[in-house]
Amino acid sequence: MTAQKPARDVRIDFFRGLALIIIFINHTPGNIAGMFTPRMYGLSDAAEIFIFLAGLSSAMAFGRSFGRAGFLAGLGRVAQRVWQLYRAHIGLFIVICAIIIVANRMFAGPNYISQLGIDRFFQDPGGSLIELLSLHYVPHYFDILPLYMLLLAAIPAMVLLARVSPALVVAVSAVLYVGAVAGGWNLTADTTDGRGWFFNPFAWQVLFVVGYGYGAGWFEVPQATRGRIAVAGLYLVFCAALALSLVRLDGGLFAGMRDILEPMARKTDVGPLRLLHFFALAYVVVALLRAAPELITPRGAEPVAIMGRHSLSVFLLGMALSFVGGIVFDQAGTGLLPHLAVNLGGIGLLWAWARGAAWFNGQPWKSGRGRAAAPVPAFRIRPARTAPMPAPAMARLRLAPRRAL
After folding, report:
1. Residues 6+ apart with CB under 8 A from 254
2. Which of 67, 186, 282, 396 pairs as cysteine with 196 (C-beta 3.0–4.6 A)?
3. The predicted structure's pLDDT at residue 64
């Protein structure tokens, strides 16, 4: 008898689906809807949510595999997922390149190769392809999946260190984070100009590790008190003012401190102010859901949660649709109708894609759960229209007794 698979937490799927919707909106060039996403009113954005939840869900999925099936089996499962992400990364790049080629041939306007910053690939496809495959060439717009791959690949080492002490994992994570922020540690994203990865893995791993530790039970969120909620709320207000000042008001109230504050809120290294903003926001959300769990119910959250359950395929489609949406704005303008078409149509396609993925994953052709399949009564034999069966053959025919399910 196999162990029952633990039920999924609809809250995790809901927030992951919400992050995917925000990522789609924010990655669409010229999208006014991006003005209403969290990045405009705080320091962290959907990327922090995505990586934190990736760590949390990895602890529940891969961490349990190591404990249940052994280290080698857990290592194999992680390797399988990393390979899946690698193929998705290369496939996404090829699809976007194909869209760019078609758009440049069909439409007048911007050169989408230059707009995306992948001129190097089209100028030197041979050399660039080799470095793309080895992750030595990580173009902008294609940097989240390589980060995710490296974080997953680190899970076996985290498991081994945690067997000594979970505190050892946290300590190593802290050293890497400080090295990234203060020491400039990073990986090379392009050997021609020496730029580093936009999502610095030495810095972003801290969110993954905290999420993993929370999912593995290494630590818990402190109980909410009025004082803690007040402190977190005040910091969120401060970050909202800071974000609006730096991004929209060209310095504003904090103009004199701009050179100090900007590095501390930088996205590439998940600056300390940015990291603390995410933790404060997460703390308030967790406290709110503990006080009012009915805010997220399985039925009410399902339209968004289903996208979170199929996050990889929805993410890939969202990235492609974001680029197509930018082309639509270039050709049709940025009026109300194009915005409604791009945003509502795009989100609708993401939802439909997730529903389709759920249907395929259910394999209704095996279980007979497909809507189009007509029920067939068990052990029902229709009268034959041909000549009667000879008596000896009929004597050999027996119906097995129906077993109870």
Report:
1. 242, 245, 246, 261
2. 186
3. 79
Q: How far is CA 363 from the centre of its chain?
A: 24
pTM for the model stands at 0.86
Distance in angstroms (rounded) separating the CA atoms of residues 270 and 289: 26
Q: Hey, what amino acid is at 275?
A: L
- How far apart are the C-alpha atoms of 98 and 62, rounded to whole Å? 35
336 Cβ contact partners less than 8 Å away, ≥ 6 residues apart:
none
Amino acid 372: pLDDT = 46
Q: Which residues pair with 188 in a beta bridge?
A: 196
Average pLDDT of the chain is: 88
What pLDDT does 154 receive? 97
Q: Is 93 helix (H, G, I), strand (E, B) or coil?
A: helix
Contact 44, 277 (CB under 8 A): yes
Are the beta carbons of 318 and 24 closer than 8 angstroms? yes
pLDDT digits (tens, 9 = 90+) for 11-52: 999 999 999 999 999 999 999 999 999 988 999 999 999 999
How far apart, in whole angstroms, are the C-alpha atoms of residue 395 and residue 388?
13
Neighbours of 235 (CB within 10 A): 18
108 vs 39: CA distance, rounded Å:
32
b/e per residue 372-383 (b: at least 16 CB within 10 A): eeeeeeeeeeee
Of 52, 44, 49, nearest in space to 266 by CA: 44
Residue 325's contacts (CB-CB under 8 Å, 6 or more residues apart) are 28, 29, 31, 342, 343, 346
For residue 146, give both structure tokens.
Answer: 């390589």
φ, ψ for residue 222 (rounded to 5)?
A: -60, 145
pLDDT in tens, 57-107: 999 989 878 888 889 999 999 999 999 999 999 999 999 999 999 999 999
A 10 A CB-CB count for 141 gives 17
Side-chain half-sphere exposure of 222, counting CA atoms within 13 A: 9
Helices then strands, each counted (H, E), the chain: 19, 0
